[in-house]
Write a structure and sequence with these properties.
- The chain has 234 residues and is an alpha/beta fold.
- The protein has two domains: 159 residues, Rossmann fold (3-Layer(aba) Sandwich); 66 residues, no CATH class.
- A six-stranded mixed sheet has the order 6-7-8-3-9-10, sandwiched between helices.
- The structure holds adenosine-5'-triphosphate (ATP).
- GO terms for molecular function: ATP binding; ATP hydrolysis activity; branched-chain amino acid transmembrane transporter activity.
């Protein structure tokens, strides 16, 4: 059984159908990458999984349980975390306070914090700084750290490398690799170099439809397919 399964998902935003027919299966473990041109429907797919939009018709199941019409908080309680493109951090709170607020109980497990600090050392160095004063890369690290400060089965991450320097992107890739040893990551990415290094399985969305799904190794080796499905936007 797949960890997450989308079947013929249609999501309307207002009067517009944004997702027409999205189906894919995310296996447990590793990084699954969702690719697609600008405006293809990647963010809408993540928001639909998280219950921020409600698809109809179509179904989304997590560990076999139908979550299509569930509330976001209940979906989160099942073990799914979401790192949105705008990062969702609180600028006037410190790094530590941002992490505490991301826990269910208001208490951070010290061993877990140590692990997160190992992944993102800047979050330990600047733990008492207000989040607004961090660099772009550090803010992104904080947004990912909030998602993993408690164990999660599935982490949805929307374009984490956007606007980041190559050295930060490399550090992020290292961290994602380690996170994906114990959780599954569903990654939306425009940076194909980054996606290619991390992804095991992948799907391409175009105009609200899945137009390709398969292994990343095969897709990365097929330049003609990349050009056709992603064109120059990658
Ligand atoms: N709140 C909204 N209201 C109206 N239209 C929306 C809304 N959110 C998204 N859309 C439209 O739905 C389509 C898909 O948007 P979405 O953000 O899912 O694409 P994306 O693949 O994540 O693109 P990008 O890489 O640009 O973020 C776009 O045409 C977008 O303009």
């Amino acid at each position: 059984m797949s960890l997450l399964s989308l079947k013929s998902v249609r999501t309307d935003i207002g009067q517009y159908a944004v997702l027409h027919d999205v189906s894919f299966e995310v296996p447990e473990g590793g990084v699954f990458v969702l690719l697609g041109r600008n405006g293809a429907g990647k963010t809408t797919t993540l928001r639909s999984i998280m219950g921020l939009w409600t698809p109809s018709p179509g179904s989304i199941t997590f560990r076999g349980q139908d979550i299509t019409a569930m509330h976001t908080a209940d979906i989160a309680r099942l073990g799914i975390a979401y790192v949105p493109e705008n990062m969702g951090i609180f600028g006037t709170l410190t790094v530590d306070e941002n992490l505490v607020l991301a826990t269910a109980t208001g208490r951070i497990d010290p061993d877990r914090l140590k692990w997160v600090h190992g992944l993102f050392p800047a979050l330990e160095t600047f733990r008492d700084k207000q989040a607004w004063s961090l660099s772009g890369g550090q803010k992104q690290m904080l947004s990912v750290a909030r998602a993993i400060i408690e164990p999660r089965d599935l982490i949805l991450i929307d374009e984490p490398t956007k606007g980041l320097a190559p050295s930060i992107v490399d550090a992020m890739a290292e961290a994602f690799r380690e996170i994906a040893e114990t959780s599954t990551i569903l990654l939306v990415e425009q940076n194909f170099g980054f996606a290619k290094k991390l992804g095991r399985d992948m799907a391409v969305i175009d105009d609200g439809r899945v137009v390709h799904a398969g292994s990343m190794a095969e897709f990365a080796a097929d330049r003609a397919l990349q050009d056709r499905l992603l064109s120059l936007s990658m």
